[in-house]
Design brief:
Catalyzes the reduction of fatty acyl-CoA to fatty alcohols. Its EC number is 1.2.1.84. The chain is of the alpha/beta class. The chain has helices at residues 2-14, 23-26, 69-75, 83-86, 100-112, 128-140, 146-152, 156-163, 180-189, 206-224, 260-268, 279-292, 295-313, 318-333, 366-373, 393-410, 430-443, 465-484, 489-517, 526-534, 537-542, 552-569, and strands at 91-95, 118-123, 164-168, 192-195, 232-236, 247-249, 339-344, 346-348, 379-381, 390-392, 415-420, 446-447, 460-462, 521-523, 574-575. 48% of the residues lie in helices and 10% in strands. Strands 3-2-1-4-5-7-11 form a seven-stranded parallel sheet, sandwiched between helices. The protein has a two-stranded parallel ribbon with strand order 6-14. A two-stranded parallel ribbon has the order 8-10. The relative contact order is 0.13.
């Protein structure tokens, strides 16, 4: 209640995405996947682009050089950016609306900028009634919105239903799967698009990842071009779209044809040749395989192909690879649409707003934390000194709203990239993170099914999969043998099956995340810093994006792990 009251006080103060066929000929004008609109030709120099505000040794004639500061003094509000005001009477269109990040964004917009007009929410559902039900159960009735409920009291439901409009659709389909008449209405009304739809499974089948993260971007841009009043498009990507780049990684856009492997080769040998990465070619490659191979075999090949293609071009996994291609699609199609790409690192539970610790589902680091607390994760395949880049979800949301204001006012046809990440301003190592977990579970241990407290030991680190797998198997065998002595023969057989599944799961889990346990990059966030500098003092309070101030020990012990226990585990694993 206290946090909700504080939020209300801030609110009161604010008001007084290999063929040799050219891409443009690969698909017909009426294609539902890619059309002649999808190209990567060099744009007219009349089109304005962003300078990243940092030295890249790029020629000033590069397609993304344009000084943002040329516009700021004339357009931005004198007293801050004007974050609250820009949302007044605006209509938004949000994809991925029931996802973790989008829900927190929706909640904050309704709570802090209540004069917003309508927010159209693209929801996967069989019909309007099912979409309405998902809106009710996955948004309106969730605990995330408790502060909003307290603010509006009995009028809460009427208020929120007047603002949130569920729309049946699918980001993968032409016209985003929407009814033609509804889509025409929305295209006429909306001022802003926030694209939060994605599939974040790291080792997803390649065909599915391409459909979600690449074709999805294409279909979105086709719709965006129909929106005549569109002032800005926001697209959520990931900081890990930087792939196998190392060192300090700047907020540089991806352009069609680029790849990390190509960067490395040409930097060492400028005359080196490497195939260009092209979205349409990847989709066409997969489509031809699907037509040539039986279904079961196709699925197996797709599972392996994503990782192979990713590594060929310089990315760690299918997810980050297809997100980078998705960025290329957006850049190649945007033309004069003002566009902002937000690249968060690993998103974690809320730091402050609407209240500390809210989270939906076990996010990237959370399975490891829970396994560790249960005594099932005694070792990790990682460098203890490797940086773990984390950012609370509410700070991603605040950065989004501030960026909307800054570039919504400017409305220049630029592509701006923001790393919403902590490793540059507030580094956290793997060993620090896991020490905080050790400290928490030593003080607040889980209780097993027999009522015994689970004792955790300090984490052991491994630098190769063979040693790690042997250790995990050996340690879990000890647990299995101890329990087996106390169980009957039938139960012992079940325990053996459970043990085998557990070991196999941990090996697969560690294999997927191995690249990030030895990650050699950290993310420059200069554009975030500029954004913060542009804010007024009051905006910095209500839209906090200062990652440098987070005390990671306090956050994990006092906020994040308790939040995972409360909102995800929900008492399924007891604590003493």
């Amino acid at each position: 209640m206290f946090n909700c009251q504080m939020t209300m006080l801030h609110l009161q103060n604010l008001f007084s995405f290999n063929t040799r066929v050219p891409t443009t000929k690969l698909f017909s004008e009426n294609s539902t996947n890619f059309s002649s609109n999808f190209s990567y030709k060099v744009r007219s120099m009349k089109t304005s682009h962003l300078t990243l505000g940092i030295d890249h040794d790029i020629d000033s004639s590069s397609s993304f050089i344009k000084a943002l500061s040329d516009h700021q003094g004339d357009v931005l509000a004198k007293d801050g950016i004007g974050i609250v005001d820009i949302f007044e009477a605006k209509n938004l269109f949000v994809t991925g609306a029931t996802g973790f990040l989008a829900k927190v964004l929706i909640e904050k917009m309704l709570r802090i900028t209540p004069k917003i007009n309508k927010i159209y929410l693209l929801i996967r559902a069989k019909d309007k009634a099912a979409a309405f039900d998902r809106l009710t159960s996955e948004i309106i009735e969730t605990k995330l919105f408790k502060c909003l409920k307290e603010m509006h009291g009995e009028s809460y439901e009427s208020f929120i239903r007047s603002k949130l409009i569920p729309v049946v659709g699918n980001i993968h389909e032409p016209n985003l799967g929407m009814d033609i008449f509804i889509s025409q209405q929305i295209a006429q009304e909306i001022d802003l698009i926030v694209d939060s739809a994605a599939n974040t499974t790291f080792d997803l089948r390649y065909d599915l990842a391409l459909d979600a993260n690449v074709n999805g971007s294409y279909q979105l841009m086709m719709f965006a071009k129909k929106c005549k009043n569109l002032k800005l498009l926001i697209h959520y990507s990931t900081a890990y779209a930087n792939g196998e780049r190392e060192g300090l990684l700047y907020e540089k856009p991806f352009m069609m044809g680029e790849s990390i492997t190509k960067e490395k080769l040409t930097s060492n040998s400028p005359s080196a040749k490497f195939p260009s990465l092209n979205a349409a070619n990847e989709l066409d490659f997969v489509s031809k395989l699907k037509n040539a191979i039986k279904n079961n075999e196709f699925k197996k090949i797709m599972k392996e192909l994503g990782a192979e293609r990713a590594k060929l071009y310089g990315w760690h996994d299918t997810y980050s690879f297809t997100k980078a291609i998705g960025e290329m699609v957006i850049d190649s199609m945007r033309e004069n649409i003002p566009t902002v790409i937000i690249r968060p690192s690993t998103i974690t539970s809320s730091y402050e707003q609407p209240f500390p610790g809210w989270i939906q589902g076990l996010r990237v680091i959370d399975p490891a934390i829970v396994f560790y607390g249960k005594g099932d994760f005694p070792g990790v395949l990682a460098d203890p000194n490797c940086l773990v880049d984390l950012v609370p979800v509410d700070m991603v949301v605040s950065a989004t709203m501030a960026a909307i204001a800054k570039h919504g006012y400017l409305q220049t046809p630029e592509l701006n990239v923001y790393h919403v990440a902590s490793s540059y301003v507030n580094p956290l190592s793997s060993s620090q993170l896991l020490n905080y977990c050790y400290e928490f579970f030593s003080s607040f241990p889980f209780v097993n099914s027999k009522g015994d407290q689970v004792k955790v030991n300090k984490m052991k680190y491994f630098d190769n999969m063979l040693d790690y797998s042997n250790y995990i198997s050996k340690e879990l065998v000890k647990q299995h043998d101890e329990v087996g002595e106390l169980t009957h023969e039938v139960e012992h057989s079940k325990m053996q099956m459970l043990f085998k599944r557990k070991v196999e799961y941990l090996k697969n889990f560690s294999k997927v995340y191995e690249p990030y346990g030895f990650y050699k990059g950290w993310f420059h966030s200069g554009n975030m810093q500029k954004l913060m500098e542009d804010m007024s003092e009051e905006e910095r309070k209500s839209f906090d994006i200062d990652l440098s101030k987070i005390n990671w020990r306090d956050y994990f012990i006092g906020i994040h792990i308790p939040g995972v226990k409360e909102h995800v585990l929900k008492g399924r694993i007891a604590s003493s």
